[in-house]
Model the fold of this input.
Amino acid sequence: MRRPIRPIVAPITPERRMLVSAFLLAGLLTLGIMGYMFIEGWSFLDALYMTVISITTVGFHEIQPLDNSGRIFTIFLILLGVGVAFYILTALVALVVEGDLGLALGLRRMKGKIEALSDHYILCGFGRVGQEIARDLAARRVPFVIIDSNPEAIESARKQDCLLVEGDATSDAALIEAGIQRAQCLLAASDSDTGNTYIVLTAKALNPGLFVVARVGQPASTTPMLRAGADRVISPYSIGGRRMALSALQPLVVDFIDTLATGRHGEQILAELEASEESGLAGMTIKKCFETCPGATVLALQKASGAIQVGPRGTTVLELGDRLIVLGYEAELEALHPPSPTERAATDKGTAVRPDESAGIA
Done:
């Protein structure tokens, strides 16, 4: 049995209510003027005056005596005027509540949500690069706050219901409002290399332990950005060029990397494990570590010195501070290395987040 097609009804916004109110008022005035001119034979000005004092119920005496037909018409005109006046009043209240007052209440609620965040990410700049970062963070269910002063970026962030701080990301006030003391990572993604450098300097001054990822447009800005305190420096143009070249030479490799970067792969996830005192992995060989995880595949090992080994041998002994990139079943990996609350939120989408590394940023 086919279901009947329901018509699509547009929502009644305060602006539409005000438009309807204007049409109702104009229609009521027209009705009153035509009624008095037809019933009583009055002039246009007399009919307009009588209509206005009737629908506004000001209590003035009629300008000319009314017969019974005129009195009955005036009664209905007053009743209609009261109804229209009530509708206009409710439309004005809705416009105020959902307009300026609604915006103020929304900002207060947003401020409360930001103050409740901890171990979140701060995204400075909501341009083309910033929007891609925000989309990936949202897909991985990672909490983040946007800082931007551009009106177009602010409007775009509001439409996407993102937590937002309106202001200059280089100022202490904006960063503090975004909760930089409680944040886990900051991403400086504005279009200006100079601006990103100041953002990094200010952020590191407020929270020296903050993990910072910065965008650069010019290769020459990489070194100053690192000196400013950035932990990772990303050049979208360099990455884009390498990806295009690799797509032309080895397209399957690019598809494989993209598949890994999406997070979940059936029942498996891509995760990072650290050989720390809490995990108890330090001093063990890789083979020994994953005896209880037969379905896990170790893709890479990053030594504490920063060197990366792709496909490390099972006989490699893990040292304190070493990190492993592993593809395996979530239940097995959690039993091996229980995630923190932030990591758990990220693995809901499929990627474990390191305490000092931003997720999904390549």
In short: The beta strands are 121-124, 144-148, 164-166, 185-188, 211-215, 232-234, 268-274, 297-302, 308-310, 323-329. The chain has 14 helices and ten strands. The first strand starts at residue 121 and ends at 124. The CA atoms of residues 103 and 355 lie 35 Å apart.
